[in-house]
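Case study 2.
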Amino acid sequence: MSHDTKTRIAILLVISMLLSGCTGGVVEEPMDEVPGCMDETASNYNPDATVSDRSCTYPEPEPEPEPEPDVRLTSQSEFCDDVNPHHCMLPFPAPAFLVDDETTATGYRLHITAEAIPDSGSGPSEAFHMINRLDGYSPSTQIFTTFES
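Prediction:
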């Protein structure tokens, strides 16, 4: 191989290396950094931001509504206690079944009307005459009531 051929090959290699670096048409300029909030859920979201500057702010969440109290109204009557919605006579004993009576030692007398007593299959109930003459409740009376399960 002659010296002339070697020179030409060397020149071709150098030119091909120089030209291979110039094949891209447009040179991109480095982008300017735009600081800002980059979170789309934030109230101050900046769609043009390229760098997060941790300045995101979020709207206050809606306060949870307070639960409504579980209030159950019972019917009002002159012959029921109306504290227990399951039965008119419960809880028993209760002051709803006492009336003032100055002739007794305690100043009270039991008064359970016929409307408060459940009717039986044989006929309507009548007032508890034998109980209504008592001077209040016995200290050993058991307390009766019901509870919702």
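The helical segments are 3-20, 129-132.
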